[in-house]
Specification:
By secondary structure, this protein is an alpha+beta fold. It has two domains: 9-39, no CATH class; 40-88 and 99-141, Sandwich (Immunoglobulin-like), CATH 2.60.40.790. It has three helices and seven strands; from the N terminus they run H-H-E-E-E-E-E-E-E-H. It has helices at residues 9-29, 33-38, 151-156; strands at residues 46-50, 54-60, 69-74, 77-84, 103-110, 121-125, 128-134. It is elongated and about 105 Å long. The N and C termini lie far apart (136 Å).
């Protein structure tokens, strides 16, 4: 008796994927997890906004101690460096998924010439680093009053003197 089986072309791919997953799991189990997690570097998200008085940067760095963050201004360049260290625990944990990034980072920003680099300040609260870059006084916008007409035209419109 002949048995008919339905051919599914993607079944072979699923089998190959399962074999590759097992191979990677076995090879990475031999390597220490902590080393593989801390060797990466990342770039934290940054929001930059500006108003007439200052430029502000908000950098997301949750889980990083303030002592591990370095903010430096040199030659109109702002450099922010830091490191997120993996928490070491006594017990070995079996991670199923690791999405948080660990390691060191460096972000560099070229500052506009309108920024007063002597008055830069940084504040770290709730995992967000706020860097305030005040503008120089001469760089702030000035309101100019617009006069209508001129004094000479006003004088000419007055009554004429007859001799």
């Amino acid at each position: 008796m002949t048995v008919l089986t339905r051919w599914e072309p993607f079944r072979e791919f699923a089998t190959l994927q399962d074999r590759m997953n097992r191979l990677f799991r076995q090879s990475f189990n031999d390597v220490g997890r902590d080393e593989s997690l801390t060797s990466t570097s990342f770039a934290p998200a940054v929001d930059v906004y500006e108003d007439e008085h200052k430029v502000t940067l908000k950098i997301e760095v949750p889980g990083i101690d303030e002592k591990d963050i370095n903010v430096r201004v040199e030659n109109n360049t702002l450099t922010v460096q830091g490191e997120r260290k993996i928490e070491k625990e006594e017990k070995e944990e079996n991670y199923r998924r690791v999405e948080r990034q660990y390691g060191s980072f460096t972000r560099t920003f070229t500052l506009p010439t309108t920024v007063d680099t002597d008055k830069v300040s940084a504040n770290y609260e709730k995992g967000v680093l706020n860097i305030t870059l005040p503008k120089k006084a001469e760089a702030k916008p000035k309101q100019i009053k617009v006069n209508v007409g001129s004094e000479k035209q006003i004088e000419a419109k007055g009554p004429s003197k007859a001799a």
